[in-house]
Specification:
It holds the Pfam family Beta_helix. Helices cover about 0% and strands about 40% of the residues. The strands form 3 sheets. The protein has an 18-stranded parallel β-sheet, with no helix packed on it. The chain has a 17-stranded parallel β-sheet, with no helix packed on it. The chain is elongated.
């Protein structure tokens, strides 16, 4: 309930600001036209406001500010063409932002920082120059059921120790990642539809963490999920398909494209003095995902950290199902890798992999192509176009207790300068060449 001033059906078009509510003041602000001011509405020091059906645009800073534990409801407003964020939430403020159109801003649509919270739901956020929703410096909002599209940066960016629960949003056609996590950002990103972006679906940069779970990520021009391996995310239960590059890519160094995605606001940086947190030491993991119909590899690792790849279904990709192309300690366990256009699993020079309990079926080249070390055990490798397992020099794996179908080629093919220890495997149905 609101007991205080009612500000209704006014025109504000000159002066510093339209409405200031502070010191636990209450106000109901409805149906106003607010434009051309330094700022629109400011809610400070425990104040409470209801902001309904206003047009707030062309302000020199943000349309709405919440500070110092302020609360309120912002609903049904048209907020556009402001020079800073459409809505700025800070210092433990906790408003509800719903059913608004927030667009064409020179910066972000909604920014949450400095322990700001809030519920941001069922808004249309589009055509902003920076992130549609931008969370940093311990901001921790709930962002759900929004439609975020056609922005010139990320759909949702979480950085500098930002948190948040990001769920059930439709994020479409962004210039950068649909969701971008880095520099200590540690959100839960679940059940979103991230599609048709001009770059990657999700970017997890240096120091990024969090849980990326049960999202539908498809039709993006870059990778479905791009991860810098010094980051330690959990990528679980997602559907990742129809990407212009690999489904999931783990890399060891940023490239120019991702480095140029400058997420942090210079104005905000001057307002805060934070130390970048160091990433934790847990292993990055890709577990229980469905990775399909991508133009590159299903999962591509070219990093130098450890990685767990477990219980994924990886199929119908245009390159390898799983490609490990740099030296690292990798666990590949209990995956289904089938019908990919190149090898099922490819382990390149210097890598040490534990490949255990996988089903590798119907790939157009070899089931497994190995030039590294490690253990290959208890896998079913069947009906692939070339050899079941091919070992290149200087590969030296231990191959044991596998079921290998040689088809029209060899069950195990050991090339020049390769080594290995091959024992206690079941190798059968050799029709035209030797088992070895």
């Amino acid at each position: 309930s609101i007991h205080g001033c009612i500000v209704r059906n006014n025109l504000f078009n000159s002066g510093k600001g339209a409405v200031l509510v502070r010191r636990r003041g209450h106000a109901w602000i409805e149906g106003n036209e607010i434009h051309g001011l330094v700022h629109g509405i400011r809610c400070l020091t425990g104040a409470k406001i209801v902001v309904l059906n206003n047009r707030i645009h062309n302000c020199e800073t943000s349309a709405l500010f919440f500070r110092e534990r302020s609360v309120g409801l912002v609903a049904g407003n048209h907020i556009f063409s402001n020079k800073e964020a459409g809505i700025d939430i800070r210092s433990c403020s906790d408003p509800i932002i719903q059913h608004n159109h927030i667009h064409s801003g020179k910066r972000s649509g909604v920014v949450v920082l400095d322990r700001g919270r809030g519920l941001v739901r069922d808004n249309d956020i589009y055509d902003n120059n920076e992130a549609g929703v931008y969370i940093l410096y311990r901001g921790n909002p709930v962002v759900r059921h929004n439609r975020i599209w056609s922005g010139r940066a990320a759909g949702i960016a979480i950085t500098e120790d930002g948190r948040g629960h990001i769920s059930h949003n439709d994020i479409c056609g962004m210039e950068w990642g649909g969701v971008d996590i880095r520099n200590g950002g540690n959100p839960v990103v679940s059940n979103n539809w991230i599609r048709e972006g001009h770059a990657d679906g999700i970017v997890i940069g240096e120091g990024g963490k969090g849980i990326v779970m049960d999202n539908d990520i498809r039709g993006n021009s870059g990778c479905g999920v791009w991860v810098l391996t010094i980051a330690k995310p959990v990528i679980y239960g997602n559907r990742i398909g129809e990407s212009g590059d690999s489904g999931i890519a783990f890399v060891s160094n940023s490239d120019l494209h991702h480095d140029n995605q400058q997420l942090t606001s210079p104005v905000v940086q001057l307002d805060q003095d934070q130390v970048r947190p160091r990433p934790d030491k847990n292993t990055a993991s890709a577990v229980n995902n469905i990775v399909f119909d991508n133009a590159g590899h299903g999962i591509h690792f070219c990093g130098n950290e450890s990685l767990l790849i477990r219980a994924n279904s990886i199929h119908s990709n245009k390159a390898c199902g799983i490609c490990i192309s740099k030296p690292a300690d990798i666990t590949i366990q209990d995956n289904s890798v089938c019908r990919n256009d190149s090898h099922g699993i490819c382990i390149e020079l210097g890598s040490r992999a534990s490949i255990h309990g996988n089903g590798v079926y119907g790939n157009k080249k070899c089931g497994m192509c190995v030039s590294g070390k490690g253990t290959i055990r208890e896998n079913d490798v069947m009906s692939n176009g070339l050899h079941a397992i091919q070992i290149f020099g200087p590969g030296d794996p231990y191959v044991t207790h596998n079921r290998l179908e040689s088809g029209h080629h060899n069950g195990v093919c050991i090339m020049e300068n390769a080594r290995g220890f091959v024992e206690m495997n079941e190798i059968f149905e050799s029709r035209s060449r030797a088992t070895f």
